Amino acid sequence: MKSFTPEYQNFNSKLYEVLVVNNNSTDDTQKVLEKYVEKHDNYKCVIEKNQGLSFARNRAYKEANGEWIAYIDDDAYGKKDYMTVFVILPKINTQ
């Protein structure tokens, strides 16, 4: 989560949304997510009760507001230039 904050990405947070699907966590994940949502306008969290990766990703697809969607698992992180590359690279490839 921290690796997608505007401070870390150095990217305009109005240009991307961070959507986290809580897929039945049993620890304090929901509380942590709520703190990120409160602090960052571009963060959103939803709970998916049906267990499993496909349910979580399908829920993310339904909830997402953007034109492009990138899935990142809970054990991964975005490098500092992730959002810049994700936004600029498709534009370069379509020219």
Question: Would you kindly provide a written description of the structure presented here, covering whatever features stand out?
Answer:
The chain has helices at residues 6-9, 29-39, 53-63, 82-93, and strands at 18-22, 43-47. With 95 residues, it is an alpha+beta fold. The chain has one domain. The termini are far apart. The relative contact order is 0.22. The model has no long low-confidence stretch (mean pLDDT 87).
Could you outline the blueprint of secondary structure elements for this entry?
Blueprint: H1 6-9, E1 18-22, H2 29-39, E2 43-47, H3 53-63, H4 82-93
Parallel strand pairs: 1-2
Summarize this structure briefly.
This protein is α+β, with helices and mostly antiparallel strands and 95 residues long. Helices cover 40% and strands 11% of the residues.
Structural domain count: 1
**Share of residues in strands:** 5-15%
Radius of gyration: 14 Å
What is the total tally of β strands?
Answer: 2
Give the termini separation: 32 Å
Residue windows where pLDDT falls under 50 for at least 5 positions: none
Average pLDDT rating = 87
Shape: globular
Structural category is alpha+beta
What is the N-to-C succession of helices and strands?
A: HEHEHH
- Largest sheet composition: 2 strands, parallel
Protein traits:
95 residues, two-stranded parallel ribbon, 4 helices, alpha+beta, single chain
